[in-house]
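We treat protein structure as text, and this decision shapes the records that our systems exchange. Because each token names a local backbone shape, the row as a whole describes the fold. For reference, a complete record is included directly beneath this paragraph.
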Amino acid sequence: MHKPSFLDRFSQDRIFWLVVGVILLAFVLLNARLSASILISLAALLVAITIHECSHAWVASLLGDPTARLQGRVTLNPLRHLDPLGTVMMLVTTFTGLGIGWGKPVPVTPYRLKPNPRLGNGIVALSGPASNLLLGSVLAFLLRFVYSPAWLVVAIRGLALINLVIGFFNLIPLPPLDGNSVLIGLLSLSKSRWAFTISEALYRMSRYGPILLFGLIFVAQLFGLNVFGWLAWAPAQALYHAMAG
């Protein structure tokens, strides 16, 4: 079986990479040079999204669903996990500080998952942000022992913080974020009527996930509410300082 090379991937997603290249070129021409902080942010986002999506695919395979593994998603090759529109938005977010980026969703067939579809899907969903939080915590702890060179300290700090922010952001129980599936999985552990009712409501909300998420982002920015700062940035900073000392 032929394994796709980088050139094969480029030819398949040529329009995507051309759009990404045009955005990067335009930014370079407008700003003369890329700052170190932007390069670190881009690298950190790439690492965080790759780790996140690979963890989803790996855990799904462990729980009995080979769908993502058969599509080559159990890999640390970032090209396998980049979504065209999500990557463009990731670039916009990095350059402007506003917006949201994302990776290519990992395909999961819940009925194949152990021990049951909803709990198994919740575990798969949790694996993504958990991997970001674990990586961010380890990198932050590493800063207790790394003092120089300065660029290395800055790079590790950037990698740690971005992974922690992405981890906490994805745990928000709002579709299409992982936190929604995690909450449904936790509710499936209870046999009570109220747990089933809430779980069904959350499950029905999933179909409107992107609209709800972007609507919340728009409303928060319109009224100057730092919702995601409270839910993601604040706990990320707290964990970072606890680990880094």
About this structure: The chain is about 70% helix and 0% strand.
